[in-house]
Amino acid sequence: MLRDALESVRRQSARAAIAEVIVSENCSNAESKSVCGEFADLPIVYLYQEPSAFLHLKVILERVRSPLVAILHDDDWWECHHLANGLSHLRLHPDASAYWTTSFFVYDKRSWIIGCWNISVWMVAGFPALTDLAKLDAKKAALACVCNAPAHYSTLIARTDVLVESYNEVLRTKSPLDSDRMLFLALVKRGPALVNLVPQVFIRRHAAQEQEKFSSTASTEHMETTTRSVLAICRELGLDVAQEFNRLYDECPVPEFRDRLIEAFDPRVLNELRRQNALPFKLLHSPTRKAKWLLQQACPPFLWRGARELRRIAGK
User: Degrees (nearest 5) of the Cα angle 33, 70, 145?
Assistant: First the structure.
C-alpha cells in the first residue's frame, strides 16, 4: 500500500513544490525502507519509530521545516492535482488555517467507489455548488463535527506552525480514536477551514486498519466521548444543534435528498445525540426513516444483529 501512496506523490502536478517526503514506519515493518528505495527521484526522509498511536504524528511534525505540510496515510492515495489545488487555495485565503478535501472510499485501487465523504460539509456550508470551495467558520465546523469527522487526515494540507499547535491540543485528549474531529475543531480555532467538495483523495478500507482493532463497543464509546466534547463546543458557540439541522433540512435545495441527510451522522453518535436532546426531529422522522423504525420494532433484535454481522464480514 505504501508503494501506491508514494506513486501518488510522484504523480503530483505540484511535485516541484515538495521539499521533502517524510516516510515514518510505525508498525515495526522494515520492508517499508526498501519500498522507499524504489522512489529515488523523491526527496524521501525515512524514519523508523516504535509503535505509538499518540506520538507518531508529533514526531513527524517535529522534523518538518516547510511552512506547509500535507498528510497522507500509507493505505490511501492522492489525485494528481491535490497538492496544486491546496497550495492555490491557501494562497488565495491567507486567513485559513488549513485546506481539506472530501474523499472517496474504496476497498482497493481496482475496486468500485463504495462511498463519497462530503455530505456533512455540503450540508453545513449551506448546500453550495460542488464547484465552490466551502469555507467553514467555527460554528459551521462544529455542526459538521456533530455528524462525523468532516474530512480524513489524508486530505489535510495545513500551515505547519498552526498544525503543530493544534495537534498538541488534541494530544491532551488522549483519545486513540476519532481524533480527526477534534483536530478539525482545533485548527478552526486558529482560522477558517477550506474544504474542497469534489473528492481529491481515495481512502482505502481494509481489515488491517488500526480502527478495526477496536470492538464495536469500544469504538462507540470513543465516538460518544468526542460527541460530548463537540456538543459542549456547540453550546459555547450558542448553537441549538437540533434546531440548526432542522433548518438545514428545510433549506435543502434538492427535496429528494432530504431523507439522505441523516446519512451525514455516524450511527455511533446517534445515541449521545438522543441523550442530549440534540437529534434533529425532521431528519430522524422523515417518512422513509419512520418506516425503517417501524420495521426495526417489528423484527426480533437477533435479525438486525445478524444483518450487521453479515455486512461486517462482507466488508472485510
Answer: 120
